[in-house]
Specification:
The complex is a heterodimer of chains A (256) and B (289). Chain A is α/β, with parallel strands linked by helices. In chain A, 31% of the residues lie in helices and 27% in strands. Chain A contains 8 helices and 11 strands.
Chain lengths: 256, 289
């Protein structure tokens, strides 16, 4: 598949449900290979924009251009906040990850090959036959990523996947996502509340506040002014010589 | 004992076959009920089917069975049982966690209580109604017809074929609806189909086999299979196998000692679950050591 120049473009889009608008005048362009972080307080429309991205929500006004092939369900992988599988239900990593092949036409050999590839990408190689419930919280979250990757997606959407993870598990997950973006060319949309993660890993940032979205390359969108306006508390962004950023929150003096 | 059972085949083959087919079909659907952790929904839906049958009887006393003999027919009673069962399944299977809305557990409890009490109230003044409701509540599979056997064979065949072809999207929708929606699974349609089919199976089973046998076959084999399996897909094989094997054993024993086969089957399935729990505990102990 040849990659399109633009995967998704919203121009002056108004998004919402029924007559109620959640986001207004949204202008955003997502290109193949981007690594977006969607940041903002609860209830500011991150999920609404994800729905537009997935094609399950049409704009009330404005234009939404979606590359239908690039953003078809076959090419989208989704990682939810947590696994909702009932803990008493028996399953292995293999069975759990292969649930991600729903809607994909693969013979058994291809499916096994994709399974091995997906597990190797998240550092769970050779563990396919293991009991899913014997994994640690961080490993389970990586198994969720593997379940999304087994589809061989072009776009990976992660909806607050680091909630409840300890620092080491969070770091392992983010390194995995960054590697997939850099080496596999995977387009990533990462929804989170954690601005320190965005400071370290984002290439592009979209900030959600009070019905609007400001987005673009991290250098222009992830600034002290924009973050302070978004969160309502002073957040200082410090650019490091190596090109990464760190943030300092008002009051606690902590730096990330 | 087995020879005695085989000798009874000419007289009771419809009973045994209908019992096995109901057990196998419901135990397959029971895997989905157990996967959703909605076991109490099974109880509420079977109770709602009883309410459907009581409602049909009440209509009969209201407008006169003599003038409208179809009201007293098996087909009408089964149809109302199915309609009430499907309605109850749809009402109780709503996704959980919607802010500002009543929880599915509360709705399920309401369905169970209203159906259990309502079915008694509706037939309170019907000459045969109370007796029929008590018979259904107690369960009896004696009296199944050849037509019943064909109906449950069809139900089992369709259920098995659908789960063979679509068990992954159904499982994903059951266990992780957010992801299912994101990757294009039409969750509302699937949920409607699964709930409707479950309602149909329960509604048809309750008329022939009663509440205890229907509910028992829905949840007990799937629960036992859950404790003996390493993967959900194995449960889809093991649950009907257990249902067939254990009900077969129960029918032979019940016939030998002249005991009610439905109750014997449910007690035996309950025993199988205890053995499955013990097997699981033993497996864990061995893994630790």
């Amino acid at each position: 598949m040849t990659l399109p120049e633009i995967a998704l473009r919203l121009e002056h889009a108004r998004l919402g449900y029924g007559r109620r608008a959640v986001l207004a005048d949204v202008n955003l362009t997502i290109r193949p290979g981007d690594l977006w972080f969607f940041l903002g307080p609860n209830g500011t429309g991150k999920t609404t924009l994800l729905r537009a991205l997935l094609g399950t929500l049409d704009p009330q006004e404005g234009r939404v251009y979606r590359d239908a092939e690039f953003l078809s369900h076959r090419h989208v992988g989704f990682v939810p906040q947590r696994c909702e599988l009932h803990p008493a239900l028996p399953t292995t990593i293999r069975e759990f990850v292969l649930l991600g092949t729903v809607g994909i036409r693969q013979d058994k050999r291809e499916a096994m090959h994709s399974l091995e590839w997906a597990l190797s990408q998240v550092g769970l190689d050779g563990m396919a036959a293991r009991d899913y419930w014997h994994l640690s919280g961080g490993q389970r979250q990586r198994a969720l990523v593997a379940r999304a990757l087994v589809r061989r997606p072009k776009l990976l959407i992660l909806d607050e996947p680091t909630n409840g993870l300890d620092l080491a598990a969070e770091d392992a997950l983010l390194r995995c996502i960054e590697r997939l973006n850099r080496h596999e060319g995977l387009t990533v949309v990462f929804v989170t509340h954690d601005i320190t993660l965005a400071a370290r890993y984002a290439k592009q940032v979209a900030l959600f506040r009070e019905g609007s979205v400001t987005g673009g390359p991290k250098e222009t969108a992830f600034t002290t002014e924009e973050l302070t306006r978004t969160y309502g508390v002073r957040v200082d962004v410090v650019r490091q010589p190596d090109g990464t950023s760190s943030v300092r929150m008002e009051g606690n003096g902590a730096t990330a | 004992m087995i020879q005695e059972f085989l000798d009874s085949w000419a007289l009771f083959h419809n009973t045994w076959l209908a019992g096995w087919l109901i057990a196998a079909g419901l135990s397959l659907l029971g895997v989905l009920t157990v996967a959703r952790d909605q076991i109490f929904i099974g109880a509420a839906v079977t109770q709602a089917s009883m309410l459907g049958i009581a409602f049909a009887m009440w209509i009969g006393t209201l407008i006169g069975e003599a003038a409208h003999p179809w009201i007293d027919s098996d087909a009408f009673l089964s149809a109302t049982a199915v309609v009430f069962s499907i309605l109850a399944t749809l009402v109780t299977s709503r996704p959980s966690g919607q802010p500002g809305k009543e929880s599915p557990e509360a709705v399920t409890g309401w369905v169970f209580l209203v159906s259990a009490s309502g079915s008694i109230l509706l037939v309170a003044h019907s000459p045969h109604g109370t007796e029929e409701i008590h018979r259904l509540a107690a369960s009896s599979i004696i009296g199944a017809t050849a037509g019943d056997v064909w109906i449950f064979l069809g139900l089992l065949a369709v259920t098995a074929a659908a789960l063979t072809l679509f068990h992954r999207p159904i499982l994903l929708m059951t266990t992780d609806p957010a992801t299912a929606v994101a990757i294009g699974v039409r969750t509302r349609l699937w949920s409607l189909l699964v709930s409707g089919w479950l309602g149909l199976a329960i509604g048809l089973s309750i008329r022939v086999s009663g509440l205890i046998f229907t509910f028992g076959c829905l949840v007990l084999p799937a629960l036992a299979a859950k404790n003996l399996s390493r993967e959900i897909r194995i449960m889809f094989w093991l649950s009907p196998m257990l249902a067939l094997g254990v009900t077969g054993f129960a029918f032979v024993v019940a016939h030998h000692w002249d005991l009610p086969p439905a109750q014997m089957a449910v007690v035996s399935l309950g025993g199988a679950l205890v053995i499955a729990w013990a097997a699981r505990a033993a497996r864990r102990l061995m893994q630790r050591s």
